[in-house]
From TrEMBL, chain A:
Pfam families: SBP_bac_8. This is Extracellular solute-binding protein. The keyword Zinc-finger does not apply. Its main location: periplasm. Keywords: Periplasm, Signal, Transport.
Automatic annotation (TrEMBL), chain B:
This is ABC transporter permease. It is a multi-pass membrane protein. The lineage of its organism: Bacteria, Pseudomonadati, Pseudomonadota, Alphaproteobacteria, Rhodobacterales. SUPFAM superfamilies: MetI-like. Gene3D superfamilies: MetI-like. It is found in: Cell membrane. Keywords: Cell membrane, Membrane, Transmembrane, Transmembrane helix, Transport. Residues 69-276 form the ABC transmembrane type-1 domain. The chain crosses the membrane at residues 20-42, 69-95, 107-129, 149-171, 210-231, 256-279. It comes from Marivita lacus. Belongs to the binding-protein-dependent transport system permease family. CysTW subfamily. PROSITE patterns: ABC_TM1.
Amino acid sequence: MAIKDKTTIKHYVRRDVLRLGGGVALSAPFVGRAWAQTTEINMLAWYGHGEPDMVGAFEEANNVKFVPKYYAGGDNMLALIAQSPPGTYDIILSDGEFVQQLNAAGYIEELDANDYPFDDMLHEDFTKFPGHWEGDTLYSMILRGGHLGVSYNTTAMSAEEAASYEGFWKPELAGKVGHFDWHLPSLGMMSLKNGNGAGLWDLTDDQWQAVQDVTMTLRPQVGGFFDYGGTFNSLKNGEMLAMCGIGDWITGVLERDGAPVASVIPKEGGIQFTESYCIGKNSSKADLVKSFIQYMMSPEGQVKSAQMLAYPGFCVTKAGRALLQEVDPAEAKRSHQMDGMPNDPIALINEGRIHYRDIPKQQTLEDWNDFWSEYKNA
Amino acid sequence: MNIVNRRLDLYALTWRLPIILWQLVFFVGPVVFMVAMSFFVVRNYRMMEAFEFANWERMLTRGFFWDSYWYTLFVASLSATIAMCVAFPAAWALAFRASESVRRWAIFLLVIPFFTSYLVRTFSWYVILAESGVLNAMLGYIGLGPFRMLNTHFGTIVGYLTLTLPLVVILQTVSMANIDKTLVEAARNLGCKPLATIWRVVLPLSKTGFIVAALFCFILAFGDFVAPFYLGGSQEPTLPILILDTTKSGQQWPRAAVVAIMMMLTLFTIAFTAIALAYRKPKGARA
């Protein structure tokens, strides 16, 4: 009986395997065709831009799949493109200041300005954003921005103290001031503190020396240098009470969770990071990418960008901002994206308090980085 | 006889060849490339083949490089010293006091931390060392603190010990467990005090294992990026952090290669010195 049972089981398994194998073999062409219909779009971007909260709806509607490759920092992005064969990336999310270099190196395609809502921009600067155009030819579409200033724990610093970069030197904050570990925003802020205003990136030797000197005086206050995760943690657990080099893109995420942190643009001015889409040179999916950029520039896409889970950014179109106020008034209010609110990002630009992030004009990036290493070692 | 020897050599070579090939492809090759890369130049974020000494000159003449170098050397040595001292009582107890079964279980338990990612273990220290963390809460009950432990040299050392301490305890235990216990007993019977027994009998007999343990600890700490970055707050930056900083700005991989080569030269020098010391015969020993 046992033997019979065993045999039965063996036959059953064999038959089952055959049936299953046959089924798979017969259905394989259809499965293959179904898979083939899903087009992969290779994306090079900062973390978060290729996640489901940003691209999920577009993927579903267009049967595409984004394959993101994340970078940290514009030079990292340039290096990744330089080391890849042409056409590797279909869509590139670039920091605004690096678009010009992408274009100069021939890494991106021309765009047709008529495809995008330039008549709906919240600020005139966004229609002809520096570096995004060469003459009348468009190379990159501005998606969103964010402002960097003084980020602080509201239980340790008052709004008045945070209204100036001087606040970082508050004696009670000794050892409690952190730096986002990237020289560009932190040294840019020190340049603003020194009164360089709109010329914060275009420093003469004397001005550059003065920026280094004032930065060095901050060193005793500094409790650490952090990456994204470290910055996030140290502000959340109260290890750091103020942070230089960041803005609402980090404190906004913590604020949504109820942490007592905030970011303000101090009286000396703030820095804007700008994120823009480009179509990779020789991309075979340029039309699909164009559709995606149009989708992200639509009111719905702009709201998705403002609500992005990884880090928020403000809308650049009027319709996007209006929809955000309608569907998520709490986020619109938290991020000051309402007319008449203090620190409304557009009002700050109009007041001349915001300077677009750039790279050093009279020094090299390596000069700034060398000083940054010296500073960290001091 | 010669034919037999040749056959034996071929047999041995067959078994040795994979590791030789592995080392050639994954160690010698990359090292040669790294040395060559240190003479390359970067233009427009693209590395170009060249033979220029500019990277060496730039890095070795910068004060911050040497600050990082000496700091890394110091903190890795300190961590090796602390690990050796902290591990010794536990290893002693496991080698001389514990039963065979307890020792086996203890070694198994010491291996368990390696089942979890080092990064995860490092991040778990946040909960313990933060100013609002477990340790400060406990100290608060006896009226102490809060103390700042994260983003300090102390944090860095804690991270290094997380990485190295279990390994050091295992290596020390194994080397002391192999000592002929009758020699220790003889020393005690002849009136040798406990500390003198350790110094004059145990340590000389387990010298090789101890030096290897300290060397492993030093090597792991010297090249570690995670502890000084996440628990030390990147201040001061160690050489691995300097490598990251150098590559981040301007994609200066050739300059980062200079730092990496300096690290390797240092490790080779220290490792060969340590191994020579470990296998050096004591004066008066018979050949």
